[in-house]
Amino acid sequence: MSTSFAAPAAGHPYHALTWRLLAALGLSQLIAWGTLHYLIAVFAAAIAAEMHWSSARVQTGFALAMLVMAACSYTVGRWIDERGGRLPLMSGCWIGALGCTVLAAVDRYPVYLSAWVLIGLGMRLALYDAVFATLAGIAGTAAQRAISVVTIMGGLASTVFWPLGQHLLERFGWRGALLCYAGFLLACSLLHLAVPKVARRPAQAGPATGAVASHPPTQPAVAWLYTYCAAGVVFLQTGMAAHFIELLRHAGWSAGDAVWLATLFGAGQFCGRATIALWAFRFNPVALNLVPAVLLVVSIATYLGGGGLMAGATTFAFLYGLSNGTATYTRGAMPLVLFDPAKYGRTVGLMLKPALALSAVAPVAFGHGIDRWSAHGLATGILVLALSLLAASAALYRLAPRPAVT
Predict the structure, then answer these.
(1) CATH topology match: 15-199 vs 216-399
(2) Which of 92, 270, 323, 362 would staple 296 via disulfide (CB 3.0–4.6 Å)?
């Protein structure tokens, strides 16, 4: 039996996608997201208590990491386009491990910030967008289903690493736990040996090579609309991740009930990504992007109208998770049909700069919104943003080309 995940076109110059490759990338995303992106959620309180720093001071490190991701986004994308993803992905794990090691040894605030600079660079090299660019370089538009499969495992990172990190914290302290995280990342780097060494795509290739034909120029309006959609989604994802349970508590739920309801967010996210991996990947991702936009509007409207009721709260949590899980896929898959897949890394890297920069301030902005306007007022603002994202998604669908998706 062939191990090919998706057979390439006749004469295609790249390696076929395989289940071995996707399993390795999926597992690497679970580890990288768990040890890097979710690190602050597990260890922030312990770091603040030992170092006698305020919560805001501790969280500033994570914000700095997001700004570093924005600053290096284009350069990383271009590197992957030109050299393939194996070395960048491995480097992200190595740099992330170094960042965790420096963080474990921190004794002054400047050292703390320097650790987050390393972690930010590691995240940009090792997380989803680098993997998406790698898959685009391997398979072009055929990478759509592969993207959906990889995001399923990555979506389990908080489920695995929040309790695992808490266990390590209780047993070894936050410094020892961070050294364990560094070890996980070093082991994770070996998973990327499954990534094929992809040579740079020839600038001009004839039919004999099976190269994909040159992509037509992209309308500026299409580029702007995609950038707006990506920035809005990432901003909401980061802000809601920090305040999701708090929004439920402001709706009248106890801390225990809010945590239980929050598990429906993860269930919805998993269901969304699994559905895409099973069959919805066949649809044009630009059209499919309307689904998470609609779900986002409905979920926030449900919170505003009935967040204090069990039916309303469960619907809000599940539908928001469904929207978030689907949006992660469409954000990665849309560039495959909107832009030249051969330039996926640099194109998306440039367009993600504002998204990553906004994500750095999202948790603070959401907290300020709750303090100033209440949770209901913040949710109203989110609904307005969600409606604008739905309008932008509809406009993007109208303007985008209609590729054949197989």
Answers:
(1) yes
(2) 323
For the chain, the structural domain boundaries read 15-199, 216-399
CA separation, residue 77 to residues 60, 84, 203, 234, 242 (Å) = 26, 10, 17, 18, 27
CA angle at residue 328 from 325 to 332, to 5 degrees?
Answer: 150
- Four-residue CA torsion sign, 160, 166, 168, 174: positive
Closest CA to 326 of 280, 284, 363: 280
Does residue 84 come out as left (phi exceeding 0), alpha (psi in the -120 to 50 range) or beta?
left
Helix (H) or strand (E) holding 359: helix 344-399
Between 51-65, 70-84, 125-139, 301-315, the lowest mean confidence (pLDDT) is in 51-65
pLDDT band at 145 (very low <50, low <70, confident <90, very high): confident
Of the pLDDT bands very low, low, confident and very high (cuts 50, 70, 90), residue 192 is very high
**What CATH number matches the domain at 15-199, 3.30.470.20, 3.20.20.70, 3.90.79.10, 1.20.1250.20?**
1.20.1250.20
Write down the residue that tokens 């921190």 correspond to: 106
What would the two tokens of residue 394 be? Answer: 């509809």
